[in-house]
């Protein structure tokens, strides 16, 4: 989609980022609800235990930017996501079919701080530049994320059911594989 500004970079989150990460997830929940998708994350997803585990296991990636013209400016988080390596058990059963059975990484829990537009594209570009086979999923009501995936070259592969939910489990599964 595009290159990110030179003052921007990606880094792993640390527990020092936890409160800011939680504020960004709260912002994302409010935006989703306001745009016709109130149930994907409800008022409590991602769970605190998931956020802490993502940070502890180095899955949370942050798109950050230095404010000001030098390296001493304050850093702000523009977007965040979980980058999960290895097989995702949720993806074993699909109503449809994946593009292949090759090893892949999964993008989960993309959220923007709302400070800068189109940062989801930057996150996806960063992942796809580093990994040739990427999977993701989103709620059927999350039209914005569906658009982002499809515009980023992902193929809609079918439907999956989340294992950690009692209701509202269905998600649209996507994959992008660079051969």
Helicity range: 25-40%
Radius of gyration: 16 Å
Number of DSSP helical runs: 4
How far from one another are the termini?
A: 19 Å
If strands are numbered along the chain, what order do they take across the biggest sheet? Answer: 1-2-3-5-6-8-7-4
Question: How would you classify the helix and strand content by structural class?
Answer: alpha+beta
How many E-type strands? 8
Low-confidence sequence ranges:
none
Order of helices and strands: EHHEEEEHEHEE
Beta-strand fraction estimate: 25-35%
Described by the principal axes of the CA atoms, the overall outline is globular
Mean pLDDT: 93
* Biggest beta sheet summary: 8 strands, mixed
Written account of the structure:
The protein has 179 residues and is an alpha+beta fold. 26% of the residues lie in helices and 30% in strands. It is built from four helices and eight strands. It has an eight-stranded mixed β-sheet with strand order 1-2-3-5-6-8-7-4. It starts with 7 loop residues before the first strand and ends with a strand.
